[in-house]
Amino acid sequence: MQLSPIDFLQGFFSLLFVLISVFLGLKIISRYFKYKRREIALIGLAWIAITSGYIPDAISFLMIIFLNSPLSESLYFIIGFAFIPFYFICSLIGFLDVLHINKKQFWIIFFIILCIIYEIIFWYLFLSPTETIGIFLAPFQVEFNPLIDLFLLIWIGTFFVLGMLFVRETFRSENPEMLLKGKFILIAFLSFIIGQIMEILIPLTPLTVVITRLILISSSIEFYIGLILPEKIKLFLLKENERQ
Question: Which domain range does residue 186 map to?
Answer without folding.
Answer: 5-243
